[in-house]
Amino acid sequence: MFLPSMRFVMRIYWRQFVRNNFDKSSGPNEEAAMKVRKEQKRLLAAEIGAAILQGDYRPGEWLRQIDLEEAFAAKRFDVRSALTQLAASGMVSHVENRGYRVAQPDLTVVREILAIRMLLEVEAATQALPNIGPGELEKIKQTQKIFEDAVARGSKADQANTNAAFHDEIYRHAANQSLARLIVEIRNRARPGPIALWPSNAELQRSAAHHVEIVDAIESRDLAALVAAVRRHIVESGANYPAR
C-alpha cells in the first residue's frame, strides 16, 4: 500500500514542480508570443484596410495574395488571416474558388441614387446660376484649376476633396441651402467608396473636361448647357461607379 501511495504523491509533486518551474516561466512567454502574433495579424488587417480606405484599391477590385505579400512585406498565412478578418468586417468579400475582392455596393442602388443626385444637382445649378456674378465665377474657376492641379500631381485624397470643393462652390449659391446640404449627403451616400476614386487617369481627365463644360455654361449664362453638363458629369463620371 505504501509504494502506490508514494508513486501517487511523487506524480503530484512532479506535476507541481513542472508547473512551478516550467509553466510559469514559459507560459507568459508563450501567451505573449501568441498575443504578438495576434496583434501582428490585426495590424496587417488594419494596414490593408487603411490602404482600401485611402483608395489604393477600388471597390470591386480583386486582392491577389501574392501582391499583398509584396506590398506589405508579409507572409502568406498572415495575409490570408488579415483578409479573413476584413471579410468578417465587411470591407472585403470572399468569393469561393476565386479569392477576395474589395466590397462594392449594389449597382442598382448606385444607379438609383445617381438618378436622385441628377434631380437635386440640376435644381441646385438652376438656382445658383442667377446668383453667380463675376466674383463668384472667379472663385469657381479657382476651384476648377485646383482640381486640375490635383489631377496632374495630387494624391487620390486631393483629387476627391478638390472635386467636391468645385461642386460645393457652385451649389452654395443656390437659394435653397438645405438643398445644397442634401446634395453633399446624397453624394457621400452614392459614392462607391470612402472617397471619390477614378479607375484611370483617362477618367480623371474626363471629369476635368466636364468641369470646364460646366464653367463655360455658367460664364455664358446658358442654363440649358449647364443642365446638360451637370447631367453628363453625373452619369459619365468613372468615380460614381464601382469597379467591374
From TrEMBL:
Keywords: DNA-binding, Transcription, Transcription regulation. PROSITE patterns: HTH_GNTR. Transmembrane segments: none annotated. One of its GO terms (molecular function) is DNA-binding transcription factor activity. Residues 38-105 form the HTH gntR-type domain. Coiled coil: none annotated. It holds the Pfam family GntR. This is GntR family transcriptional regulator. It comes from Bradyrhizobium betae.
